[in-house]
Amino acid sequence: MKRAFYTTVSALALLTAAPAFAGTNNSTVTQSGTNGIATVNQTGSNSGSTVGQSGDLDVATVNQSGATGSDSSIDQVGDDNHATVTQADDGTGFDPTQSSSVSQSGDNNSATVTQTQKTSFGSAPGTKNTSTIDQQGNANSATLTQQDDDQHSGILQTSDNNIATVSQGDNTAPEGTANGTTYGNNSSVTQGGTGANQATVSQTGIYGTSTVNQTGGSNDASVSQSGGEFNGSDVEQSGDANSAIVGQSGSFNSSSVTQSAVGGIAHVNQDGIGNGSTVNQSSVGGGVTGGLTYGTTNSAYVEVDQIGDDNDSGVTQSGSSNFAFVSQIASNNTSTVLQSGNATYGHVTQTGNGNASTLNQTGNVTNFDFSGITQSGDDNISVVNQSGNGTVVFGPGNSVNSLQSGDRNNSLVNQGGTDNQVDLVQSGDDNISTITQDGGLNQATVNQFSNGNVSTVTQSGTANAAYVTQGGGI
User: Within 13 Å of residue 364, how many CA atoms lie on the same side as its CB?
Assistant: First the structure.
């Protein structure tokens, strides 16, 4: 069954104050104060409306039409509030049921809810849309649109100047349990903290779940789930001025973004089946060192792209001014990035299948460690640990470039010291490479072009150079 559910909450607050019903409809209106206006129009049966207003200049309008039943409850405490609820079904008397609850206890708030049912669904999941909006702060705005079947949304705003926009379902999608494509979605948005948060959620698939919790200030979260089924997204923003963008267009994908510091940026894109992404940005402190801004001004940036099936990515940033890019364009890959240092850059690209990559960067604020890991073959393992420092910001720093284009290769790089460089190529199969650097200005180049080779390079002095070639050219 198609349903359009639309809710808008902005800078006014109104409540329902007068009942009108027909048939078996029931309406209860209680008003205490002055200049309160309530209008209730009910047509059909099994409709219920309860409006309670306590304050001045309140307005509430409820219109319910149809024979299958709608329920609306509005409770407003405060001045200059505005709430409008319109619910309409197809009148077939079968599954369709709609429920809306609006509670406003602040000033200058506005809520508008519209639910529309056009056709009887006839069986599970049923045609029940539910919406709850609770505004306890001032000058908040909430817009909710729900279409098709079995959509559920809750918006809670406890601070000021927040904006929440939720859209669920597609009114042009096919109907019915077998052909329906946009039913059973759930969205929860909570905005508190110091306010001025913004959340945008769009779900047009089946049984998608989205949770956005903003308990800091001036955060921005955008979640889009298009097509597919059983996608899940969780965005937790307890810091300030963070930005999270999540896009899911496949099925059975999961994304978790946690931002507890200041100025973090996270972009997650999932297109496939069974992908999982976890981003944790908890950078603390801040300042400017050697011309590099870090900490509370520019704490972290993460971008994760998963286009394939059953990929897993985990990024944790607890330092300052760290950058991580993860691209998984295949299947069954695993990537872990840990950045607890400052001013580090990590890039992981997995275009083969069954690869595993671990990158751990723990440098200091005066370096710009760089690590690039590319796995275009299958079943490779790459581990890179960077714990050293650079001497000049945006200068040489420590760097690792690892390319595994063959299959079943294994590489381990432990890089400490200052301004060291590693270049590793494994284009053959079943090769093993271990590189350890501790010192300064060292360079290690290892090329494994054939199969079954083993290489070990250890550098602990200054300005050493090692070149290892095993097998023919690429």
Answer: 12
3-state secondary structure at position 65: strand
In the chain, the N- to C-terminal Cα span, in Å, equals 59
Amino acid at 187: S
Tokens matching residue 61: 């309008």
- Contact between 268 and 243 under an 8 Å Cβ cutoff? The reply is no
Neighbours of 100 (CB within 10 A): 29
Q: Which residues contact 118 (CB under 8 A, 6 or more apart)?
A: 1, 2, 3, 90
Structure token pair of residue 445: 């180049």
Please tell me the distance from the alpha carbon of residue 56 to that of residue 37, in angstroms, as a whole number.
10
pLDDT in tens, 39-68: 655 566 566 666 665 666 666 666 667 656
Place of tokens 């509030």: 81
Check residue 188 and give its pLDDT.
Answer: 96
What mean pLDDT, rounded, does the chain reach?
79
Per-residue H/E/C for 251-307: ECCEEEEEECCECEEEEEEEEEECCEEEEEECCCCEEEECCEEEECCCCEEEEEEEE
Chain segment 349-392, per-residue pLDDT in tens: 999 999 999 999 887 654 456 889 999 999 999 999 998 776 44
**279 Cβ neighbours under 8 A, 6+ residues apart:** 244, 255, 256, 257, 258, 266, 268, 302, 304, 315
DSSP 8-state symbol, 175: P
Q: Which of 426, 403, 406, 422 is nearest to 414 (CA)?
A: 422
- Say if residue 36's pLDDT is above 70: no
Tell the residue number behind the tokens 């496939």, with chain if given: 272
* Pairing outcome for strands 300-309 and 322-328: parallel
Looking at per-residue pLDDT, the higher value among 245 and 294 belongs to 245
Tell me which residue of 398, 386, 377 sits closest to 448, measured CA to CA: 377
User: CB of 397 within 8 A of CB of 376?
Assistant: no
pTM score, whole prediction = 0.84
Length of the chain: 474
Characterize 378-400 residue by residue with b for buried, 16 or more Cβ atoms within 10 angstroms of its Cβ, and e for exposed. Answer: bbbbbbbbbbbbbeeeeebbbbb
Tokens standing for 365? 């604020």
Distance CA 405, CA 423 (A): 14
